[in-house]
Design goal:
Blueprint lengths: L1 H8 L7 H4 L6 E6 L4 E5 L1 H6 L7 E2 H8 L2 E2 L16 H6 L4 E8 L10 E9 L6 H4 L1 E8 L3 H9 L1 H11 L3 E5 L8 E4 L1 H7 L20 H12 L4 E8 L5 E12 L5 E10 L1 H35 L4 H11 L7 E7 L5 E8 L5 H9 L9 H6 L6 E3 L12 H10 L4 E8 L2 E9 L9 H37 L10 E8 L10 E7 L5 E8 L4 H19 L5 H14 L6 E13 L2 E9 L5 E3 L5 E3 L17 E7 L3 E5 L11 H14 L5 H12 L8 E8 L3
Helix pairs in contact: 11-12, 11-16, 12-16, 13-15, 17-18, 19-20
Length: 705
């Protein structure tokens, strides 16, 4: 050992080795000099010679690693005529000051070999008898030949300095002595830890400190007790007290008889690597958190956008943020006059449902000076509240304060709900006492949520407004039917699911001067305001033409074609005009009808027979002179006539024939119901999920005149 120290202390030759090494740990072997047996190989050495079981002869290890001289000759072949291989010389106790060899790559798809620099350091100057018979072998990766030649020029000094220059700190401990003390350390160990020869005879736990993972230390202890190799990453402390991350590999050394003699420790300062990994993990965590927040925002927005009723959307909003974002939450909106209109609350704990409902009832108890009201009034922007009492001010009613505390306060976030530059409400989120307090990042997420939710709620409000306007426009053109003697007439109109889809469906029922009753169903092509306007024109024209001179159905449609052409009305439409004669004869009543491209009416007779009336004339609006066939039939008293538009039966996923057959089945199943109930049941059974098209229905029950 003293000789080794002297060699390091007296070395003044410029050291090219740091320029030769790639800056990565090398492969390390511990060889027993007496018989040339490899006793220990670190993980990198195991990768060079996979499958070799230790102990084994050094030549066997060399063959497995595929070691060759620089000129490509086989180092393990004594017939090569070359000097003894470096590993063999080391195994016989000779130092190897540095020689270049190549090793086979582990991959079979490439012939490129790995350049290595071999250094052998006999431990014959060690004070410990067992170590005196060992040699340390280090194989370091090289870059290029010029650097190798530079290193060879100072080979006399490199044999010891290689161990120092590498990042590998070696220790050897003796398990046969009490507490498994260190019996040898190399200079690199002192470079890494600050501890040198003064720690020989001590267990290496002096490297531990207050933040060292005790469980990792226990794993090392259990592995050593079992005589097994162990690898751990520990936070250790240098002699000056500074911390560093130490990657420790401790392996047992066995003699040729298999007896445990020592433990070899290889320690690497991997602080930079750990810091880089932690920075990477932190960046990944930030990215994952950002992705999670975006998914949360998208989920809330998507669910709100599917709700078209503004009150239902507001009721839904608080429930979408609990429990994933908050323990409980409530939303508040303002009416056009600036008054608090509604408060909706949702709690993650079902046991607090009654308190949440009571809080909703105490809308007036929310003080004007509270943070929520200040944000709602625009006096504050998105606000993070960390003090529980900030939720309650002097204007908050006593009962409201009690309910708030039962629901749980904790930290809170209040954000405005904005749409078109106006604050339409606010959303308050509370963490509750059992959750971590909200952070500034949570505030930003909530602010984004408020903006998105505000737009979604405003869209729902605008949708409802447009829908009401559309229905008002449509219904204003559809006057109630005239109730003629002996007839029970019921009508229904259901607008399309889309708010602005004003359609061209219409119905009418009125009495002609001769006492006959005319029932009309029609559908103008198109779904917009123009279609609705055209519908209004056609409905008026049909009513006027049918009333004048008590015209029959075919005459009404014939004259309507002429009027449309003469007036320049470019509208296409389908229609059925049906005339019920004024009185019944022998319990039957005559009907006449004419069809212009419309779906056939359905008849349900008192005996349960259900069928469709024939007829298929050309659509309206193709010019004067169109010929359509008028038909006549007599229906028994008690029969029901059903006229409808295609929105009742048309579906993209079902053939029209199947849907018409289904309509007849439903009508038959509703035999005996009133015309009003028939209309309602038809809409419910035929369109359980609504329709993308307008629907108009006229049901007529024929009685005695």
């Amino acid at each position: 050992m003293d000789g080794m120290k002297a060699a390091f202390a007296g070395d003044t030759v410029a050291d090219p080795l740091p320029r030769v090494m790639q800056g990565q740990p090398g492969a390390v072997l511990l060889v027993q000099v007496s018989d040339g047996t490899v006793l220990f190989a670190n993980p990198l050495a195991e990768q060079l010679a996979p499958g070799v079981r230790l102990p084994c002869p050094v030549d066997e290890w060399s063959r497995s690693a595929g070691l060759q001289a620089a000129d490509g000759s086989d180092l393990s072949d004594p017939r090569s005529g070359m000097p003894a291989p470096p590993l063999s010389r080391i195994a016989h106790g000779e130092p190897v000051h540095g020689e270049r060899v190549t090793a086979a790559r582990s991959s079979d798809i490439s012939e490129v070999r790995e350049d290595l620099w071999v250094i052998g350091l006999p431990l014959n100057d060690a004070r410990v008898d067992e170590l005196a018979g060992l040699a340390l072998v280090v194989l370091l990766p090289l870059r290029e030949e010029q650097l190798v030649r530079d290193a060879q020029e100072s080979a006399e000094q490199l044999h010891s300095r290689a161990v120092l220059a590498s990042d590998l700190a070696f220790t050897i401990s003796d398990p046969h002595q009490p507490d498994n003390p260190l019996v040898w350390v190399n200079p690199a160990f002192e470079k890494v830890t600050g501890y040198g020869q003064d720690v020989l005879g001590q267990n290496c736990r002096f490297l531990q400190g207050p933040d060292t993972d005790r469980e990792a230390v226990r794993r090392i202890r259990r592995a050593l007790e079992a005589g097994e190799t162990v690898t751990e990453l520990l936070l250790n402390y240098r002699k000056d007290g500074t911390a560093f991350w130490n990657e420790v590999v401790i392996s047992p050394i066995h003699d040729s008889a298999g007896r445990l003699t020592h433990f070899v420790g290889v320690q690497s300062d991997v602080t930079m690597r750990v810091q880089a990994e932690r920075e990477r993990d932190a960046a990944l965590a930030v990215a994952r958190d950002a992705k999670r927040r975006l998914e949360f925002l998208s989920s809330v927005t998507d669910e709100l956008s599917e709700v078209l009723d503004p009150e239902a959307a507001q009721d839904l909003l608080p429930s979408l943020v609990v429990p994933s974002f908050a323990e409980w939450a409530f939303a508040t909106t303002l009416d056009p006059g600036g008054r608090t209109r509604q408060i909706r609350a949702s709690h993650a704990d079902p046991r607090r449902a009654a308190d949440a409902a009571r809080f909703q009832e105490l809308t007036s108890g929310l003080g004007e000076g509270s943070i929520s009201m200040q944000v709602l009034r625009g006096a504050l922007g998105p606000t993070l509240i960390t003090v529980e009492d900030a939720h309650v001010d002097a204007n908050t009613s006593a009962e409201t304060a009690r309910v708030l505390r039962r629901l749980g306060l904790g930290s809170a976030i209040v954000v405005p709900l904005r749409a078109r530059g106006q604050i339409t409400g606010s959303l308050t989120l509370l963490s509750g006492p059992d959750r971590p307090p909200f952070t500034p990042d949570d505030l930003q997420t909530a602010a984004d949520l408020g903006a998105r939710a505000g737009v979604a709620l405003e869209n729902a409000r605008l949708y409802a407004q447009q829908r009401r306007s559309s229905e008002t426009l449509q219904r204003s053109m559809l006057t109630p039917p005239t109730q003629a003697p002996g007839l029970a007439v019921a009508t229904r109109y259901r607008p399309a699911a889309e708010a602005a889809q004003v359609g061209g469906d219409w119905y009418d029922a009125f009495t002609q001067p001769d006492g006959s009753t005319v029932v009309v169903i029609g559908d103008v092509m198109g779904h917009d305001v123009s279609a609705a306007a055209a519908m209004g024109q056609l409905r008026t024209l049909v009513r006027g033409l049918a009333y004048d001179r008590a015209a029959q159905p075919d005459e009404v449609l014939h004259r309507l074609d002429s009027l449309l052409e003469g007036l320049g009305i470019t509208t296409l439409a389908t229609a059925v005009v049906l005339q019920l004669e004024a009185g019944a004869t022998d319990g039957r009543r005559g009907i006449r009808w004419c069809t212009a491209g419309h779906l056939p009416p359905v008849v349900a007779e008192p005996d349960g027979t259900v069928y469709m009336l024939g007829g298929d004339g050309i659509v309206l609006g193709l010019g004067a002179g169109q010929v359509r066939l008028q038909q006549r039939a007599e229906l028994p008293v008690g029969s029901t006539l059903l006229l409808y538009t295609d929105g009742l039966v048309e579906r993209r996923d079902r053939p029209m024939e199947d849907r018409l057959a289904e309509l007849c089945e439903v009508v038959a199943a509703l035999d005996g119901t009133s015309t009003e109930q028939l209309c309602d049941e038809l809409l419910e059974r035929m369109l359980p999920e609504g329709s993308d098209d307008d629907v108009a229905i006229v049901a007529v029950r024929i009685g005695d005149a």
